[in-house]
């Protein structure tokens, strides 16, 4: 089998940098990740064959050139591009499998300082084409730039999937060493407590995920282990399910107030929920963002005039009705227990948004443009109440919910809707940062929302950190712990806590590592911090211990070796106990490797080295009141 080198996972590199300040321990891998992937397709263009590539615009000339090359002496050369979007595309159908994660790498160059995009296109069941940018590089000067192992996957049920390159203006494009590999496969940590079990007596635990995100088996495993609720990250938003062609057809037949929907892009996620009994948080019906401009315009024409309030009310009612009808009829067994009816209508000072087009300003709202103010909110809830699936609770959802002006505006609106029997709960997105807000400011806002008597859900929790040192991640863990403590305190009024994503690399804020799990699916200090001290955290048992006695029996001997200068927890014997020891301990337990220093690894002193020692060491590093022990007697000199 041909293999291609896959870079060590980011988490491992990160661990290395964060733990030692250098990259000298890059060989540490904290999971059973494959370090090689299988090459599915590779072309260095030395053979002169470019037949696998076609021009997107049909006008491009695609040939081999020896003018430049990264490897060997030739590369692919694309000229005669007439539009920005013209460029070479590579058909993936019949080559790749649905639901498997792959990586694509390539070297690219264009004219000076051009942006080059690597993107993916596919056509869904309704015939609509979707375009996703995977990565972009800026050609710094006139040299080569690299797309290095960019992850992608093909969603279920789509056809005509392509990878393609494009760049601004009509610059010629050069491409070399185009390679598609399978991505590394990670095993999730099965031997740590499940969050949904730990919090079972308090609230549901959820995650948001996109179709692409759940493609790898490890992501599915992670969600199923820790969550009993799933929010579709993008696939139930208006721009994902409004079917423009069907809307136009309906308008042509005389009714331009009955927007047509197609839930094709939501199916992979909804199927996953149905097949695994996961409850679904619907997100979102009425929102200024990710809602196409044409939805608010006459004849659904991007350049048409804004419709009247009356027309928009009818469109709103029919849209809500059609969305609910689609999920009820196709997914009768799925528990749609909550739905964000209206999203992000209030500004930090408690005023409403400016009315206008998104093209001018992403903060503009088409809804406010048509209605003149936020009066559409009540109608949205009234229609949702009328058509929602049975048992589905209705929420108003917003971010910066702790900004005083906004807190008050949401409170006032919620109380009014509550009196009218239209709303069931308030969704606090909770996109936080270690620096802002403080846990006490957050808790103050939470108390105010709880005081409405409505249900509260934490709908999109993530906490960014720019400091990716050990101390930075500990600070992040502390805020996570404080926020979850506050939620537990008000658990009677809180029915779900949802994290906005699964692993850091897949987050919308990936550059600031906001989630509980690393790219390699290992738990971060934040995970351990939120299970720490929870009364329902079950004893941690290692599957390694259950499956094989080899690792543990090495430490269970009655013959006590003489170990000088033993420092419990100092796994690498460098005289310090820090995150590097934690990474090594985790690696040793998970990979069932022979222990270099078993006495130091048995951090809870029970005679076994297993996941409980990882928890013990993590707690110690987080500054919790625990003592590191060893099964050996006190060190002798
Ligand atoms: O996570 C979503 C991301 O993939 C999209 O690019 C982005 C576009 O607006 O929306 C993200 O989800 C948002 C959610 O729907 C509403 N609250 C803010 C979230 C983060 O932007």
Q: Let me know the number of strands.
A: 21
Taking the sheet with the most strands, its summary is: 8 strands, parallel, barrel
CATH architecture of the largest domain: Alpha-Beta Barrel
CATH class of the largest domain: Alpha Beta
What oligomeric state do these chains adopt?
single chain
Structural class by sheet pairing and helices: alpha/beta
CATH topology of the largest domain: TIM Barrel
Task: Give the averaged pLDDT, no decimals.
Answer: 87
- List cofactors, ions and other ligands: ligand 9MR
Query: Regions with pLDDT < 50 over 5+ consecutive residues?
Result: 5-30, 541-563
Number of helices: 18
Radius of gyration from the alpha-carbon trace, in angstroms: 27 Å
Proportion of residues in extended strands: 15-25%
How many structurally independent domains? 3
Helical percentage:
25-40%
Strand order of the largest sheet: 13-14-15-16-17-18-20-21
What sort of overall outline do the alpha carbons produce when their principal axes are compared? globular
Termini distance? 53 Å
The CATH homologous superfamily of the largest domain is termed Glycosidases
Write structural notes for this entry:
With 637 residues, the protein is an alpha/beta fold. The protein has 3 domains: 144 residues, Galactose-binding domain-like (Jelly Rolls, Sandwich); 337 residues, TIM Barrel; 81 residues, Dockerin domain (Type 1 dockerin domain, Orthogonal Bundle). Helix content is 28%, strand content 22%. The strands form 3 sheets. Strands 13-14-15-16-17-18-20-21 form an 8-stranded parallel β-barrel, surrounded by 5 helices. Strands 1, 2, 4, 5, 7, 10 and 12 form a 7-stranded antiparallel sheet that branches. It has a 5-stranded antiparallel sheet with strand order 3-6-11-8-9, with no helix packed on it. Helix 11 packs parallel to helix 12 and helix 16 packs antiparallel against helix 18. The radius of gyration is 27 Å and the shape is globular. The two termini are 53 Å apart. About 8% of the residues have low confidence. Bound molecules: ligand 9MR. Ligand 9MR binds next to loops.
């Amino acid at each position: 089998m041909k293999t291609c080198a896959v870079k060590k996972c980011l988490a491992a590199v990160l661990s290395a940098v964060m733990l030692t300040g250098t990259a000298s321990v890059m060989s540490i891998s904290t999971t059973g990740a494959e370090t090689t992937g299988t090459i599915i397709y590779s072309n260095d263009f030395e053979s002169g064959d470019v037949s696998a590539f076609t021009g997107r615009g049909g006008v491009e000339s695609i040939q081999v050139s020896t003018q430049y090359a990264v490897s060997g002496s030739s590369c692919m050369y694309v000229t005669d591009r007439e539009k920005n979007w013209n460029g070479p595309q590579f058909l993936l159908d019949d080559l790749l499998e649905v639901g498997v994660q792959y990586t694509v790498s390539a070297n690219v160059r264009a004219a000076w300082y051009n942006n080059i995009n690597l993107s993916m296109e596919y056509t869904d069941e309704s015939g609509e084409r979707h375009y996703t940018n995977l990565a972009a590089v800026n050609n710094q000067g006139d040299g080569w730039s690299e797309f290095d192992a960019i992850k992608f996957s093909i969603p279920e049920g789509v056809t005509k999937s392509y990878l393609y390159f494009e760049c601004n203006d009509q610059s010629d494009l050069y491409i070399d060493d185009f390679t598609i590999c399978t991505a590394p496969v990670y095993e999730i940590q099965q031997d740590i407590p499940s969050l949904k079990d730990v919090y079972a007596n308090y609230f549901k635990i959820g995650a948001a995920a996109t179709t692409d995100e759940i493609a790898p088996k490890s992501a599915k495993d992670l969600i199923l282990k820790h969550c009993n609720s799933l929010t579709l990250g993008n696939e139930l938003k208006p721009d994902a399910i409004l079917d423009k062609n069907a809307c136009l057809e309906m308008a042509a037949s005389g009714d331009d107030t009955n927007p047509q929907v197609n839930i094709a892009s939501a199916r992979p996620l909804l199927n996953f929920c149905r097949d695994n009994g996961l409850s679904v948080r619907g997100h979102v019906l009425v929102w200024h963002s990710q809602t196409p401009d044409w939805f608010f315009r006459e004849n659904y024409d991007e350049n048409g005039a804004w419709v009247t309030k009356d027309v928009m009310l009818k469109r709103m009612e029919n849209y809500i009705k059609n969305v609910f009808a689609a999920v009820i009829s196709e997914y009768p067994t799925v528990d749609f227990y909550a739905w964000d009816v209206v999203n992000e209508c209030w500004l930090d000072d408690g005023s409403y948004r400016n009315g206008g087009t998104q093209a001018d300003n992403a903060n503009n709202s088409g809804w406010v443009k048509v209605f003149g103010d936020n009066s559409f909110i009540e109608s949205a809830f009234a229609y949702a109440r009328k058509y929602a699936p049975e048992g589905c609770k209705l929420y108003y959802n917003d971010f910066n919910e702790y900004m005083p002006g906004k807190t008050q505006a949401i409170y006032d609106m919620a109380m009014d809707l509550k009196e009218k029997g239209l709303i069931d709960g308030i969704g606090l997105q909770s996109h936080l940062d270690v620096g802002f807000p403080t846990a006490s400011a957050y808790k103050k806002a939470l108390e105010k929302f709880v005081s409405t008597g409505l249900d509260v859900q934490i709908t999109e929790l993530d906490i960014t950190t720019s400091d990716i040192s050990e101390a930075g991640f500990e600070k992040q863990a502390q805020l996570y712990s404080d926020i979850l403590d506050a939620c537990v305190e008000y658990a009677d009024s809180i029915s779900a806590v949802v994290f906005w994503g699964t692993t850091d690399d897949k987050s919308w804020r990936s550059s600031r590592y906001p989630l509980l799990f690393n790219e390699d699916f290992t738990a971060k200090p934040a995970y351990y911090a939120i299970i720490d001290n929870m009364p329902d955290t079950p004893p941690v048992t290692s599957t390694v211990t259950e499956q094989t006695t080899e690792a543990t029996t090495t430490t269970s001997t009655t013959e006590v070796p003489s170990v000088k200068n033993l420092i419990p927890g100092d796994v690498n014997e460098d005289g310090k106990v820090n995150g590097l020891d934690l990474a090594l301990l985790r690696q040793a337990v998970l990979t069932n490797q022979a222990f270099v220093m078993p006495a130091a690894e048995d951090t809870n002193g029970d005679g076994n080295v297993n996941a409980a020692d990882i928890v013990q060491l993590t707690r110690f590093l987080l500054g919790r009141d625990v003592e590191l022990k060893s099964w050996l007697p006190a060190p002798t000199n």
